[in-house]
Amino acid sequence: MFRASKYRNVLGANVPREEWYEELQLDADRLDLYPIDATATQLAFPSQLNGTVSAGFDVASTKGHQGRKAAAITWVHPSSFLTAGFNTLQERELMLWDVRKLDKAMARERVDTGTGLLMPIFDQDTNLLFVGGRGDKTIRTYELNVEKVRAFTALQPATAGRPTWGMATLPKRACALGKCEVARVLVLEQGGTIEPISYTVPRRDAATQFQVDQGGGVVVNGHKMSVTDLEFHPFHSALLATASDDGTIRVSDHTKPDPFVTSLDGHTKGVRCVAFHPIADTVLASGSQDNCVKLWDVETGAARQTIDKFEDTPLNLSFNFEGSLVATISRDKVLCV
């Protein structure tokens, strides 16, 4: 957590213990307490009195918003950030900056002639920029593209019930993806009430079909029957093994346009469980309704060992930490190691 003070310092705080761990002395005018934003390696802030914008721990600065009021700032890309402030005519505006070339703003967007401080929130998943003003009821929405000459594309604005005093976004895991909700902004209104504003992408088949672009992944397909188990690789997080009632095991790489990697065929009935070896990164174990457990070489697709000592279907299996033992539990309530 970073905090600016009127003594021209920027302080970093360890939030759980509330201990200061770093202090940066800056040769700049008094910083406004509101707008600071940081990435893992860089810190950006506007100076209130001389209208400059600074970025990075090796401080670089340039002329920013020239209005008298404070400006807000937020990172939108590893090398780009956005500021919201006032120009010399006291009109509210947005400016996009590249930290590698701070001598001139990448883009500028005039907002309106309002008087309240702007509060920008950027959603990296959808490239949507939500901009509210203190005391305003209108929440503006822009689609931001740092690679285009016209970086700001205005979308349909939303309206809050009362004047706005603060904004925040809900974590994506709380959004209703089944209803094509891509973002939800929580608006703190005058009087202390919080109003949620939902942003959805209308889709005709949303109720029956998974929306890949909104779910943040790819659809791994290929099995002819139901998927019964799945497990991610312990060393290669992009690899996913899936078991199916069709008697096959498929290994997929969900980061590629074509996710299919290999298919492990050898069971005569449906596969009920799979588990990667904790040390050997090419070994996979599977249990099937043909009452056997197989150890596979994922690289070659060959079954290296078959254990057929079971009286009933192995429902689940697990390696120990060293990978020297595998434990199974079967439908007949028998535990084997």
UniProtKB/TrEMBL annotation:
InterPro entries reported in the protein's UniProt record: Coronin, DUF1899, WD40/YVTN_repeat-like_dom_sf, WD40_repeat_CS, WD40_repeat_dom_sf, WD40_rpt
Superkingdom of origin: Eukaryota
Domain DUF1899: start-end pairs: 1-51
Pfam families, A to Z: DUF1899, WD40
UniProt entry tagged with the keyword Repeat: yes
Organism expressing this protein natively: Aphanomyces astaci (Crayfish plague agent)
Protein name (Swiss-Prot/TrEMBL): Coronin
Entry's family note: Belongs to the WD repeat coronin family.
Compartment(s): Cytoplasm
UniProt keyword DNA repair present: no
TM regions (residue ranges): none
